[in-house]
Design goal:
By secondary structure, the chain is mainly beta. The chain has helices spanning about 15-20, 140-145; strands at about 5, 35-40, 45, 50-55, 65-70, 80-85, 95-100, 110-120, 125-135, 145-155, 170-175, 175-180. The protein is built from 2 helices and 12 strands. The chain binds 2-acetamido-2-deoxy-beta-D-glucopyranose (NAG) (3 copies). It comes from Cetraspora pellucida.
């Protein structure tokens, strides 16, 4: 895989607002890290995939293996790629993220891939992890290219990490992504 893709996702600051309202007795979200956040591109939900970490939780500066799997309604192309990124609460990337090839997989078949990367050397107390399966096109078209995604909100109080009006756990992707 000689194509390194890197995606810039931007989170809505609105993500955090509902916690203050909902969390009478804040509880930290427990480990294992829960990959339960839906991603959106241009207002459209992206099909959810699954991810597990080892070790869990992520240790700053140490290698972490993501075991990623799922069953999607669209094919994963021959150049399908998984992108992994860390972001802070205002949507800035933490570290460089990573990418790895995904085995080409027909729609409605289970795919599975392990990807190991070195976690960012510094992690804030609250951050997001995104795992995104992309069929890269040239030029990139996130709405079309992103076929699966899931996010985790780490270090937040338990309860919805909702968007506006308590809409359930969502990470919102901007339209920009960059091929390096
Ligand atoms: C985003 O969604 C709007 C409304 O559904 C659509 O008109 C627009 O073309 C979409 N943008 C992209 C980049 O796909
Ligand atoms: C992470 O794994 C890579 C490849 O196995 C290795 O070169 C690197 O030293 C490891 N990093 C840490 C922090 O263990
Ligand atoms: C990935 O493969 C598709 C289909 O062959 C092709 O159209 C696309 O340009 C390739 N993506 C990149 C980034 O080369």
């Amino acid at each position: 895989m000689n194509r390194l893709l890197f995606i810039h996702l931007f989170l809505l600051v609105a993500l955090f607002v509902t916690n203050a309202v909902n969390a009478a007795v804040p509880k930290k979200r427990p480990t294992p890290t829960r990959f339960d956040v839906t991603c959106q591109v241009n207002g459209t939900d992206v099909e959810k995939i699954k991810a597990r970490l080892n070790p869990d939780p992520v240790v700053a500066g140490k290698n972490v293996t993501f075991s990623i799997s799922g069953l999607l309604s669209r094919d994963i192309a021959a150049n399908g790629t998984v992108l992994i990124g860390f972001q802070d609460v205002v949507g800035f990337n933490i570290g460089d993220g990573a990418s790895a090839p995904v085995p080409p997989t027909k729609a409605e078949n289970v795919f599975s891939v392990d990807a190991t990367l070195e976690a960012p050397t510094v992690l804030p107390t609250q951050y997001f992890i995104e795992v995104i399966v992309v069929n890269p096109s040239n030029p990139p078209d996130p709405q079309k290219d992103i076929v699966g995604c899931v996010g985790a909100a780490v270090g937040f109080d338990d309860g919805p990490v909702g968007g506006l009006n308590g809409s359930p756990n969502k990470i919102v992707a901007s339209n920009s992504f960059l091929i390096l």
